[in-house]
Design brief:
By secondary structure, the chain is mainly α. The chain has ten helices and no strands. α5 (about 100-115) crosses α9 (about 170-190) and α5 packs across α10 (about 195-200). This is DUF3038 domain-containing protein.
Length: about 210
C-alpha cells in the first residue's frame, strides 16, 4: 500500500470550496453569518434596476451565474428568488439570512452584467442630465421613460407597500429618483475596482 498516496494534502481543494471569483471581494466585518439589512436591500434593488434595463434580466442573472461558475450558489430561479426575498421590503419577505457567500455571488453577477450594459447605462444617465438641464419632462425621452416605467412597475409589484421604506417612496417622482441613483451605482460598479468598492460600501457607508 502506498501510504503517501492515501494522505490528503492539508490545502487540497474540496468539492465545497469557494469559487475563485469570489475571492476578489474581501470578507466584511459583520456579526453573525448573514448580511445586514441594508446590504440585502441594496443588492436586491441593484438587480431590480438590471431587470428594468433589459428584458429577460432575471434570465441574464442565471446565465451569468453559470458563466461565472457560480451555479453552485445561484442554482436556479427559485433559489435566486429566495435570496432576493431576504430584502425586508419585499412582499414575499423570507426570514432567512443571506449568507456572505450568496451576497458575494449576487454582487459579482450584478457587476458583470453592469459591465456588459455600460454603454446603455452611460447613455441613459447622459439623457437624464440633459433633460434636467433643459427642464424637460423625463417621459419625453422614450428610452429613459421605458426604463423608469419598467423600474416603477417592478418595484410596485414586488415591494410591500406597508413597509416604512416603501411608504417613503410613495410617488412616481421618488421612484424615478431611486431608479436614476441605481443607474449611477451600476455605473460606479463598472469603474476601476468598482466591484470591490461597491461591495465594501454595502457594509461601510454609502457609495460616493
Amino acid at each position: 500500500m502506498n501510504i503517501s498516496a492515501s494522505i490528503t494534502p492539508i490545502n487540497s481543494p474540496t468539492p465545497q470550496s469557494v469559487p475563485m471569483i469570489l475571492d476578489s471581494l474581501p470578507e466584511p466585518v459583520v456579526e453573525g453569518q448573514g448580511c445586514p439589512r441594508r446590504a440585502r436591500l441594496q443588492i436586491d434593488l441593484i438587480l431590480l434596476a438590471i431587470e428594468a434595463l433589459e428584458l429577460g434580466g432575471s434570465e441574464a442573472i442565471l446565465a451569468f451565474a453559470e458563466e461565472l461558475d457560480l451555479k453552485g450558489i445561484v442554482k436556479n430561479r427559485v433559489n435566486l428568488w429566495r435570496m432576493r426575498s431576504t430584502n425586508p421590503m419585499r412582499r414575499a419577505h423570507i426570514r432567512r439570512p443571506l449568507s456572505i457567500m450568496e451576497a458575494k455571488a449576487l454582487v459579482v453577477i450584478g457587476c458583470y452584467i453592469a459591465r456588459r450594459l455600460t454603454v446603455v447605462i452611460r447613455q441613459l444617465l447622459a439623457i437624464h442630465q440633459q433633460m434636467v438641464e433643459k427642464q424637460l419632462p423625463l417621459e419625453q425621452n422614450l428610452r429613459l421613460s421605458n426604463y423608469l416605467e419598467r423600474f416603477r412597475s417592478h418595484f410596485k409589484s414586488r415591494m410591500n407597500s406597508r413597509r416604512s421604506g416603501v411608504l417613503a417612496l410613495n410617488s412616481d417622482e421618488k421612484l424615478d429618483e431611486l431608479a436614476i441613483s441605481l443607474l449611477e451605482q451600476l455605473l460606479f460598479c463598472t469603474g476601476t475596482a468598482g466591484m470591490q468598492r461597491f461591495w465594501i460600501s454595502l457594509f461601510d457607508g454609502e457609495v460616493e
